Structures are given as C-alpha cells and as structure tokens.
Predict the structure.
Amino acid sequence: MNSNLVSRFVKVVVINETNGSTLKGITNDDKSLLNGHNILELNLTENANVDAILQAPRVSLSSLISLNLSQCNLNSIPDAFKDLTINELNLSHNSLNKVPGCIIDGLKSLQVIDVSHNQLTYFQEPMCVKKLRILHVNNNKLINIPEWVLKLHAFNLEELNYSFNDLTSLEESRFHQVPTYELKNLIIKNCSIRNSDVVHLKNIKSLRFLDLSNENDNKLFNSITNCDELLNKPRWDDRLKILCLNYLGISDLPNEIALLVSLEELFVSKNELLWLPESIVTLQNLRLLDLSFNKLVCLPQHFYKIQTLQILILAHNSLSSFIYSYPPNLKKLDLYDNLLESYNDMCLGDIQIDLEMNYIDTLILNEKYQSLKKSLRVNLNEIRCDGSKELVNEYSESESSASTAYSSTEEKECINKTYEDKFEEYWSSDGTVDLCKNGCTLSDNEWTGCEEKSNVNVKKKVVRRYPSWIFQDVDVIN
C-alpha cells in the first residue's frame, strides 16, 4: 500500500491552545493540518475558538473517530455534530449544565463518552446506548446513577465512573437479572454509598475493578465501615482483580478477603487497621498491597508466603518489628514513618526500600540503600524527610519536666529563700539537734497504727457568748 495514502488517513491532529475567539488566533500551520486530510483523531483541548477551527475551509471530519473538546469552556456544542460517526467524545472539564442534544438524539456510533467535571444534573438515555462501552460522568451534580444504566439498557457497558455525585439508592438496579452483563470497571468514590447498597454491588458478576474509596471528607462521604457484608460471597469473588477501599474508616479486614482468589491489587490506605487476618497470606495472585496510613502494629507470621507480592506499602503505621523473611518476589518495600528499631538487611538484596523516620540510624547505611530509597520515591506524591526519630526515655522526660517546672531565676530564688527560712535548723553547742525548736518530736518517727490527716480547710464552730441580761424581760430589769 502507498505510504502517502496511509499517512493521509491515519492522522492525529493536536492543536495547542489558541488566543482569541476568531479564526485569526489559529496559525497557518493549524489550518494546514486541518485542510485536505481525512482526520481520525482531533484534539482541541483548551481552545476557546472550537467553532472557528471546525469551520475552517476544506476540513474533512467524515473519517473522524475521536474528538477531544475538553477544557474549552463550552456550555453547549452544535447539534450538527449528531451526524458524525465518531466512536469517542471527550467533553470533560467544561461548563455543561445538560447533556448536549447531539449525544441524546445522534452520534449513534459512540462507544466512549466523557462528560466528567461539568454541572450535569440529569443524563437521559442516549441513542448510542447499545454500543456504549465507557461512560465517565464523575464530578457532576447528579443525584443517582442514570436509570438506563441501572436497568442494563447499556448491556455492553464495561466501565462506569460515577465518583463525586450523589447516589440516592441502588434498589432499582437489575445487575442480578442479566448474567452476561459486561460491566468490568466500577469507580464510585465519594457517592454517599451506605452499607445497604453493598448487596446490590455484590451482584455484578463480571466486575474486575471496584473502587469504593473516599478521597476527602465532603458531604458525599462513602460510609462502608464494615467489610463483612461486602466480602460475604459476592458474585465477583473469583474474578475481581483490583479492590480499592481507601479512607473508609475500616478497622478490621475479615477472613473472607482470602476468597478473592483472583485479587492482584488491594488498596486499604487511610483506615484504622491494627492487624491483618492470617488468611491474607493465601492470596496467591496478589502483586500490590497498600496499607499506608493505618495503625498496624504487626503483620501475619507467615506473610512471606505471598509468593507473588511485588509491592508492599506500609508507610505511616506503628510497626515496631518486621517479618524476618520477605516475600521472594518483593521489589518495593515502603516502611517510612513507623517505629522500627532494626530490620533484616540480609534479605533485602535489591529491594527498593524506605526506612526513614523510624528509630533506625539510616545515616550509617551504605550508598546502595540511598539509591534504592531514591528509586522508590520517584513517583510519590508526598514530601518526605530523611533521618530517624528520637527515641525518648519516658523516665528522663518526666525528670526533665519536673526540674524545669520553675524556669524563672527569680522564682527559684524565692522558693529557696522561703524553704531556708521556714526549715532553719537549730543546733546545740554539743552538735545535737534540738528537735523541739525545729518543730519535731521523737513521736514523728513512730507508727501508731493509724494515720491522722489534718485538713486545713475544716471549719471550726465558733460560740459567741452574750451577757445574761440580754435574755431578761424589760420589766424584770426595771
């Protein structure tokens, strides 16, 4: 096939941000890219003059399969778009308060729709419902998952991101009625999900990826604090590969976690976990385990038996000791900010590791450790410190605090002077102490079998005496 002919059809056009709202803002190079080509993919991200670009002379969109209009400050798009045969449309990060009519009444070939980060309150069933595979409606103002999704009209839908929208109820869902339902990826972070919704999520047999996490404390906080129901015989227990349960306030992982036999990645960061069930070591497909920002004090004794584990994230916990044998295929071990005083360096090898902010003096570790630590931190979205924590002796600390109770020089002098004046001892000429003058007697050192407590606050009854004539009658006195 002629290479020039191929290049005219396999065309990806990306036009950078242009200034102004007229065609004058488009450079000659931009025009030349659009003219005379059968464009397959057109990316107009962050352009303010989308209409001018699309109306450029000799623009051919008949072969277009992908159109990206994200971050263009759009509140609508032309109805003429409905006749396009595109498969992918990205309208994310705009100002849409309703789904464009061209999606509802046209664009029958659409397989991917991204209208995330807009102001949508409702999404009626589109013409492309039977072909739709990916739908992103996250970060809008929806009050429930669209009815046509819950009732499986989009039976070919494989991925749904509904995060940061309200979720009234899943009771209308019919996930259990269609055994061939294709939904594989479900992301519903910060959607006001409650424990009562879990039973419906368990019915999506085809699930491979499930994210029920929270990212912040907004009013749409997911409230799934008990994992027992979620992991109690879900229909996806032998298919799920990735499970995300971050920031849910979970204090306990049930033994049923071991029933997720296909699980490859487990994220339970920012919870209240103190320990893990021993059954977790039976997850023989697990490759990544994120337990950061919990309260873990120990790990299961046979943790090293997770043969497939490659990435273990334990940063920001309370581990004071660590397993002596590491999983054989471990490549990354994050132990930043724990309570470790030692570690088994004999088993580390080339594992990327971070031991900073423990009770370990990392300054004496060799250059290899520094290099491995640097490699582990490459893709972290977190500012970290180097060095060790200071091991504090509680007894010394209490002594120190007591000795510094009076830090002022004047206060110390005043106290010492008062003490000396009050307890000045009287010595006789023969060198003995006059106990009486010092306010002491020999009985002060004797135990009488009971302890008398003097209470300085005891009130004394005062009897006032009056002359007898006060109580005599006046006549008697006269």
In short: Residues 363 and 387 are 7 Å apart (CA to CA). The mean pLDDT is 79. The longest strand covers residues 12-14.
